[in-house]
Design a protein that fits this description.
Elements (H helix, E strand, L loop, with lengths): L8 H25 L5 H46 L2
Helix pairs in contact: 1-2
């Protein structure tokens, strides 16, 4: 059966993060196995990105939730003010 659920922006961002992390793991493994100039710096950058990417995603999702709640509260405040007007 076909699943017609619409993906939320949070799900899309999380899936994109997982794909990028898998690619980073592969690049990290390849860089660790090969010996070329700058491999040490590239390996360190891959490890740092592996840690920073999920944190950055969490911050973006958290900020998106805050903004969405603020918009909903502002819209609710406007509707309350419209009801009070004579």
């Amino acid at each position: 059966m076909k699943n017609n659920k619409k993906r939320t922006p949070k799900q899309f961002a999380a899936l994109l993060c997982v794909i990028i992390l898998v690619l980073l793991y592969l690049v990290t493994l390849i860089v660790a196995c090969l010996d070329f100039p700058g491999a040490g710096k590239m390996f360190a950058a891959c490890l740092l990105t592996t840690i920073a990417l999920p944190i950055l995603l969490w911050l973006c999702i958290w900020f998106y939730g805050l903004m969405k709640d603020r918009q909903a509260a502002a819209a609710e405040g406007l509707s309350d003010r419209d009801e009070k007007m004579p």
